[in-house]
Amino acid sequence: MNAFRLAGDMTHLLSIILLLHKIRAMKSCAGISLRTQELYVIVFVTRYVDLSMKYYSFYNSIMKIVFLGTSISIVWYMRYHKVVKQTYNKDVDTFRHIFLILPCFVLALLINRAFTVIEVLWTFSLYLEAVAILPQLVLLQRSRNIDNLTGNYVFLLGAYRAFYLLNWIYRFFIENHQVRWIPWLSGLLQTAIYADFFYYYIKSWKNREKLKLPA
């Protein structure tokens, strides 16, 4: 565990806490993409399928359970809570996530570290996480009113991946000098996807303006 890994985990956790606070306190999921949240459930289920098979540390197990539980809870609120589900922007959240799931799964079958069920699922989760934010970004582009909590949530998600990139760079130079191409390239792609959002988020923050993304 190093400072970058810890910062990434805490930033990721903070983003989820922020989103759950919005949903539970405001009884609203306006501006949040259900498609993206469902993709994150798939990411965590496939990545942590070994939770009951391997034990790394107490911290590792707890974080896995938290991310699994919170991601499923968010989807439940958006789909089934009698008040929250009425605030869901279904008409603008139209990105077909099958167009992300299928290519990522095929790619995981073709490019992986080892052709085993665990490794293919782990690789698939990395590929899918890299593009899972796309439905959310498309929804924000179509929305004229992006509230601060939603903007902060997406920003923290992007910051989490940036910290993980720094974590891998740190581990390369300090620990083992091994390049793990699959997480590196997936992380670079994910950070690049956030780049445009980062620009407009920071610009709106500096100018004290309402966050708006170009169509």
Automatic annotation (TrEMBL):
One of its GO terms (cellular component) is endoplasmic reticulum membrane. Keywords: Endoplasmic reticulum, ER-Golgi transport, Membrane, Protein transport, Receptor, Signal, Transmembrane, Transmembrane helix, Transport. Residues 1-25 form the signal peptide. It is a multi-pass membrane protein. GO terms for biological process: protein retention in ER lumen; protein transport; vesicle-mediated transport. The chain crosses the membrane at residues 58-77, 98-115, 121-140, 152-170, 182-202. GO terms for molecular function: ER retention sequence binding. PROSITE patterns: ER_LUMEN_RECEPTOR_1, ER_LUMEN_RECEPTOR_2. It is found in: Endoplasmic reticulum membrane. It comes from the Eukaryota. PANTHER family: ER LUMEN PROTEIN RETAINING RECEPTOR (PTHR10585). Belongs to the ERD2 family. This is ER lumen protein-retaining receptor. It comes from Cocos nucifera (Coconut palm).
